[in-house]
């Protein structure tokens, strides 16, 4: 152990042992992966899946409630919940019933159903914005928000905070390298960095410097950053200043609640009384059936309104997709919000989140480790640092990728499916005390084996 980080040699030794055990116990997954390689790059339906985990891919047989079952018969208490999209748990009966009924009546008409009115109204009640539109994913909700903001403001630039993730679309796939922007991945236009600004989270001076040019159409941020950087909480007063500075600069403000919606109905926007121009959501809002949505103020919505139908005198904002807002997604969202994502269900997941945080913090304290435990309603997790990071640079410095990778395979071998790297484990509304206790026990065993307990 040196400072907050365990001995790398011990981490590597345990990793080799756990990787071998993982592969040996999963022959059917290995067979399917080999077969997949003949027909799909990396042997999986999205090539990046292979690189999002360090261990070989796991093929899944089925899932129910809080549990995943792989094709080799192993069961896992699931704290990744498909990167937050299965916060409802797997196969909640009201969603199964509503979706089955809707598929039998027709999956898509490209005409509205009554459910869309209920879903838009309920999102409005939860998030406090009156008018809503639908897509198939949060990525496309964010894309459309940007187009609407550009059209309204006549400005091209978009601002994000360092450490963000808002989906895979060009404007957002740039990152800070030192003090300049670079494309995050290959395949992006060479000038992709020219329309995007990225500033450190919690840094109001840099934010104002970027906004003052009055070239920024919209700021998109999660209320607390929950992705590549683990968890970054806003400083006290940060959101009030963000709202004031964006207003002063004539810039619109969008909160992306795709992940943070799990804290309760209306996400952090409602909990913290935020006043954005847009909110975007996706993932668990329709229980993992594809649906993205964005809410907006009346003023913003005016750019889309055409009460008399086609209007060639008014520019048409580039929005839309054939399967967006389809009746199956709407039926799923209605069932999920009316019968699964209830106040009682959020309260249950929050109680378990606290149980998880208490358990992790107990292990950390007993081992005398200088680590911090997050408390984020249903979500928890450990930062390998004595104080929580405030921005992406601090978060990256303490990340310890080899230790994270060891943690995930170690937990998987003990029937616990951990969050993807950097993200914290989250208790779904279907999770149980036993699931949480299994997570804490496996984490405690690992700390013991690392020789720091
Ligand atoms: N916004 C946030 C905050 C997210 O975390 C994600 C996915 N991790 C997205 C948007 C994109 O969601 P999707 O991939 O479902 O479009």
From TrEMBL:
Query: Which cofactors?
Result: pyridoxal 5'-phosphate
Q: Which InterPro entries match?
A: Aminotrans_3, PyrdxlP-dep_Trfase, PyrdxlP-dep_Trfase_major, PyrdxlP-dep_Trfase_small
Recite the UniProt keywords alphabetically.
Pyridoxal phosphate
Q: Which Pfam families match?
A: Aminotran_3 (PF00202)
Say which family it is in.
Belongs to the class-III pyridoxal-phosphate-dependent aminotransferase family.
What is the protein named?
Transaminase
Q: Which organism is it from?
A: Nocardioides taihuensis
Q: What is the lineage of its organism?
A: Bacteria, Bacillati, Actinomycetota, Actinomycetes, Propionibacteriales
């Amino acid at each position: 152990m040196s400072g907050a980080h365990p001995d790398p040699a011990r981490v590597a030794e345990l990793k080799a042992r756990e990787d071998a055990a993982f592969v040996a116990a999963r022959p059917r997954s290995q067979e399917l992966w080999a077969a997949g390689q003949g027909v799909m790059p990396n042997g999986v339906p999205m090539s990046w899946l292979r690189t999002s985990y360090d261990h070989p891919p796991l093929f899944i047989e089925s899932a129910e409630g809080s549990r995943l079952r792989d094709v080799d018969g192993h069961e896992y208490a699931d704290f990744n919940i498909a990167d937050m999209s299965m916060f409802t748990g797997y196969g909640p009966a009201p969603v199964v019933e509503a979706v089955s009924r809707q598929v039998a009546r027709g999956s898509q008409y490209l005409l509205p159903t009554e459910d869309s009115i209920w879903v838009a109204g309920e999102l409005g009640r939860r998030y406090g914005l009156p008018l809503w539109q639908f897509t198939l994913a949060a990525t496309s909700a964010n894309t459309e928000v940007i187009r609407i903001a550009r059209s309204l403001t006549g400005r091209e630039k978009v601002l994000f905070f360092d450490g963000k993730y808002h989906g895979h679309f060009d404007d957002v796939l740039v990152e800070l390298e030192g003090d300049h922007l670079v494309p995050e991945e290959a395949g992006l236009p060479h000038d992709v960095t020219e329309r995007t600004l990225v500033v450190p989270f919690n840094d109001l001076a840099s934010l104002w410097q970027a906004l003052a040019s009055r070239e920024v159409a919209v700021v998109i941020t999660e209320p607390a950053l929950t992705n590549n950087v683990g968890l970054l909480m806003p400083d006290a007063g940060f959101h009030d200043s963000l709202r004031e500075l964006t207003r002063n600069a004539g810039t619109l403000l969008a909160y992306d609640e795709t992940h943070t919606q799990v804290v309760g109905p209306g996400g952090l926007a409602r909990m913290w009384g935020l006043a954005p121009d847009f909110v975007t959501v996706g993932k668990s809002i329709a229980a993992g059936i594809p649906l993205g949505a964005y809410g907006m103020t009346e003023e913003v919505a005016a750019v889309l309104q055409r009460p008399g139908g086609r209007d060639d005198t008014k520019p048409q904002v580039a929005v839309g997709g054939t399967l967006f807002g389809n009746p199956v997604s709407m039926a799923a969202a209605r069932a999920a919000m009316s019968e699964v994502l209830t106040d009682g269900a959020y309260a249950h997941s929050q109680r378990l989140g606290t149980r998880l945080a208490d358990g992790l913090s107990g292990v950390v304290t007993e081992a005398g480790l200088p680590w911090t435990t997050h408390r984020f309603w249903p979500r928890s997790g450990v930062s390998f640092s004595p104080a929580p990071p405030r921005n992406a640079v601090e978060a990256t410095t303490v990340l310890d990728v080899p230790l994270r990778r060891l943690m995930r395979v170690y937990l998987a071998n003990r029937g616990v499916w951990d969050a993807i790297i950097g993200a914290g484990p989250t208790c779904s509304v279907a999770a149980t005390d036993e699931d949480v206790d299994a997570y804490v026990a496996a984490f405690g065993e690992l700390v013991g084996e690392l020789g720091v307990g």
